Structures are given as C-alpha cells and as structure tokens.
Amino acid sequence: MMEKLIFGRYIPGHSFIHKLDPRSKLMGAIWFIIIIFLANNWLTYLALTVFVLTAVKLSEINPKFFINGVKPLIWLILFTVILQILFTSGQTIWFRLGPVVISQEGMLNGVFIFMRFVLIIFMSTILTLTTMPLSLTDAIEFLLRPLNAVKVPVHEIALMLSIALRFVPTLMDETEKIMNAQRARGIDFGEGNIYQQMKSIVPLLIPLFVSSFNRAEELATAMEARGYKGGEGRTKYRQLAWENRDTIVMIAFGLLSVGLFLLRT
Amino acid sequence: MDIRFEEVGYTYQPGTPFQSRALFDINLSIKDSSFTALVGHTGSGKSTVLQHLNALKKPTSGQVTIGDRVITNFSEDKGLKSLRKKVGIVFQFPEAQLFEETVGKDIAFGPKNFGLTEEEGLAKARELLPLVGLDESFMERSPFDLSGGQMRRVAIAGVLALEPEVLVLDEPTAGLDPQGRKDVMDMFYNLYKNQGLTVVLVTHQMDDVATYADHMIVLEKGTVMKEGHPRDLFKEAGWLSSMQLGVPSTVRFAHELEEKFQWMFDPLPLTTDELAEQMKEKLADKAGESL
Predict the structure, then answer these.
(1) B263: domain range?
(2) Three-state DSSP class for B202?
(3) ipTM value > 0.90
(4) Per-residue pLDDT of chain B (291 residues; tens, 9 = 90+)
(5) Most buried of A141, A144, A173, A201, CB within 10 angstroms?
(6) Rounded to an integer, what distance in angstroms lies between the CA atom of residue B242 and that of residue B227?
C-alpha cells in the first residue's frame, strides 16, 4: 500500500514551479488553503480551478499522478460530501425522507466541498512533488524565524524536522525489511481479527523502536564528532534566493485573492 | 525442494512516477540439496530474486515454482505460510528482527507461528543454541544485551528453528570478524552436508563461493548473465571483472603463478588446500627435473 502513496514525495524536475524558491511555494500553498474558504459560488470556484490547473501545467508533472494522489482520500471525501448532501436543508427540496433531505442547496454544497478537497490536495501535491523535503524545512526555518523573539527554539525545530524528513525513507525501508523478516518467520500481517492483527504488530514495532534508538545514538555521536554544538554561530550551505519569478507568483496569488473577494456573493 | 524461475520479471511501484524494473525475464533453477551462490554487483537484483524464493514478492510477469506451488502475479496470498516454513530466509543483518524478552522466546517465535506449543518451541531453542555456537545460559538473557555477533547467531537460530528445507542466506557474514565468519559459514555448510538442506547464498565474498558452493549464478542489471559450477566461471577472470566481480584469492594467486612460472593448473584450484596440493605436485616435478 505504501508503494502507491504519491502524496508527500518529491519528483525531480526543471519546471517553472521546481525552480521557485521554497518559501514562495510554501507561503503560496498555505495562503491558497486560507483563500479557498472565500469561494462560495461557481465563478469563484472556476477561478480557483483555473489557477490550480495552470499551476499543474507549469509543474510539468503528469496530471495522472495528481489524480492518484486523491485516490487514497477518496472515501473520506465522498463521506463528507454525502453527509453534506443528505443533511443540508434548503429552499428547493427535491426529496425528503424523515430527517434526510436532498435539496438543491445541499447538492451544490456537496459539489463545492468536493472541489475544495480536490483543489487543496492538488495544491499541496504540487508543493510536495516539486520541492525537496530539505528545501521545505529551510523555508519553514526561515518563515518561523520571527518566533525567535519569543524564545521559540526555531533552529532546533528545523533541525529535528530535517532529520525526521531525512529518515522517513530510511525507516520505511527498515519497516519493509523487518516485515519481510517476520513474515518469513510465519507472521501474517493484516490477517485475522483485530486482536491478532494488533498482536502481529509487536514483532515489527519493537525492532523498529530499538533500531531508532540505536540510530539516534549513532547520529548524535557522529554529529558531535563533526563539531556540532547547536544553532549559535552556524552558517548555511544552502542559501535561499528570492528571484523575480517568486515575486510574480506572489502577485498572482494577490490577484487571485482580490478576484475572489470581488466575485464572491 | 526445487525452485524454478520461468521468465520472471519484477517491477517496483508499477504505474507511478517511481516505477522501476528490477528483474527481466529471469530463468533459473535451484536444485534440491544443492549449494547455490547468487552473486552480482550491488543493485543487480539479487535481493529481489531472494524475496521471490518464498513468495514475499510475486513476479509481475512469468512464474516461480517452489516445490509444487506455482506463484504468478495472480496467485492468492492465502496458504503462503506453509511455503514460508519450507523456505527459511536469513536476511541481511538479521539481528534487526529480534524482539522478544528472552533469547529462548525469540527463537521459539517462528515455530510457534507454525503451530508448535511454547514448550516445544523452547525445547527447540535449547537444542539449536549449541549449533550456532552459544550455550544454554543464553536462553534467559535478553537479546538486546548481546553483542552484535551473538545477536546474529540468535537470529539465525530463529530461522533454523523453522526446520526449513531450503535455507536462503543474504550475506550472512557481513560485518562479522574473520573467525565468526568462518564459524557461521562452516555451520551452514555442515547443515547442507549432513541434513541435505538446499542452501542459496547471496554474497560478495568470492572466497566463500569457491569454498562452499557447487553452483553459481551471476546476475547483472536484473538478468542472469551466466550460471554454472564456480570452477568454470572463475576461469574467466576478465569477464567477471567486467561484471564488477572478482575471483577468489586462491584463483588470483594461481593465475599469478601461471604467469610467472608458466605452470598450468588443471583443474583450477578453488580452495587453499587444492592449491597447496597442486603446488606440491608441481614443485616435486621441478625437483625431479633438476636432479
């Protein structure tokens, strides 16, 4: 199952979006999630859709992969949409059965919520597919920097984030290896009743934790041996550079926001 | 138990941007009671082949026959358990699979999964400890208190406890000291000799291949390049190095002697003993000539 998960992985490329500064991409994606709640009619949703599809086009990534990204969440989305359709009351009622009401407004709401989900997933997929996890942590560190003033350990948070991201694939490999080893010893993962399934997780979790402890200790030793003493007085190898195209993207987001304000009812 | 691969292909993550083909139409067979060495450069597909041997992976094309079971892409996952009991795999760095509170329980874990009682499993563990070079005092110790080499032995005992008919070893001696290496390999060899076990060894150690294996399969970029007796394959040192593989130290030394003294070694010596024997003969001849 893990193999099919597209969301949250990086595809190398040289498109316009790939070359953007991670800060502009991150701010854009967050801003997008905020302004999507401004949309409340067909025109605004149309504007958002055109915006997202343009971004997909600019990222030069096969659109199929975006649809694959939605697939794992499709049941959650449909569940929400159906609840929305069944329990929104409205003026034009098409069908009624006890508390269950299908109205035109409910239908419309359902469609809008569906679009909202899909657009947000598309937007965040663009962000993760075109940005290296490490650049993303650099961007987070930069954007959190003002919090230093209120004694938030921004450097430490960024360090933990980048180490965590770096070890996600390693731990995934490790999980797969241990799973295989235990399967070879006669464990059936994901079979039997809930109690049996939970029990079968133990031979996977304990070795994973043990190896994480060992790994952490080795990593800390190696970092100290290389002279790491904390954030104070460090320089940066990867410098973030804001360029014209980033300003253009910010302007595009600004125009979109203004447009939404004007078009919403 | 025979294992046969017919036109086996395997693709990782098909239908995603990360899709990559690991195996291309592989045909090979591992005969009952043989000692097969699977060698190849890193990334040649050895580990993928290995995971097909007990159906941890199913081929995306072609079919694998394990004993009387045929595994294809469409095979169901049901009933693979009995297969896994027959084909035991010792993965690379198997010490990572230990998890129970005591060594005894950990070794008994596999047998218990295949229906033995706790007592029977523990009895088996007690039986196996001396075989892997540990004594009974280890039964009650926590596996996490042991040294790396001892953990490795416990993990190997945990696989042997399944009493497999085929034993698959993925670099079982990686990271061990020279004595530990020899002990572990000799133990596997004795199992093969005395109990008629079929052994499949994946390794980079050509000396081990020369000393123990009677069949050798060379993989490169997901295809089988050559297979045969190690003695025949090691004759082609140039070809092997083009596969980024070496020859055993005895063979290298024999080649140097051939070049320097125009000696011809026939058959090609694979172990130090064989080499010494042939050198003795050659030197005796020489002494005879000069008299």
Answers:
(1) 248-290
(2) strand
(3) no
(4) 889 999 999 998 887 777 888 999 999 999 999 999 999 988 888 989 999 998 889 999 999 999 888 998 888 877 788 888 899 999 999 999 999 999 999 999 999 999 899 999 999 999 999 988 899 999 999 999 998 889 999 999 999 999 999 999 999 998 888 888 898 999 999 989 998 899 999 998 899 999 999 999 999 999 999 999 998 899 888 898 888 888 898 888 888 888 888 888 878 888 888 888 888 888 888 787 766
(5) A141
(6) 16
What is the radius of gyration, based on Cα positions, of chain B? 21
**Counting beta carbons within 10 angstroms of the beta carbon of residue A58, is it exposed (0 to 12), middle (13 to 18) or buried (19 or more)?**
middle
What single-letter amino acid sits at B59?
P
Task: Produce one character per residue of A79-94: b if its CB has 16 or more CB atoms within 10 Å, e if not.
Answer: eebeebbbebeeeeee
The domain total for chain B is 2
What share of residues in chain B are helix, strand, coil (percent, to 5)? Answer: 45, 20, 35
- Residues of chain A falling short of pLDDT 70: 1-8
Q: Do A180 and B51 touch (CB under 8 A)?
A: yes
Residue B26's identity, in one-letter code, is: I
Please tell me if residue B54 touches chain A, with a CB cutoff of 8 Å. yes
Residues B145 and B255 in one domain: no
Q: Are residues B265 and B124 located together in one domain of the fold?
A: no
My answer on whether B154 and B265 are in the same domain is no
CB contact under 8 Å between A6 and B12, yes or no, is no
CB contact under 8 A, B13 and A186: no
Same domain, B162 and B221: yes
* Minimal C-alpha gap between B25 and chain A (Å): 23
- Do the Cβ atoms of A207 and B91 come within 8 Å? no
pLDDT, one tens digit per residue, over B61-114 is 999 999 888 998 888 877 788 888 899 999 999 999 999 999 999 999 999 999
Q: Determine contact, residues B223/B26, Cβ cutoff 8 Å.
A: yes
Nearest to A186 among B97, B98, B114 (CB): B114
Q: Does B86 touch chain A (CB under 8 A)?
A: no
B102: contact with A, CB 8 A cutoff: no
How many angstroms separate the CA atoms of B49 and B58, rounded? 10
Domain boundaries, chain A: 16-131+241-264, 153-226
Question: Is the domain of B123 the same as that of B256?
Answer: no
CB contact under 8 A, A185 and B109: yes
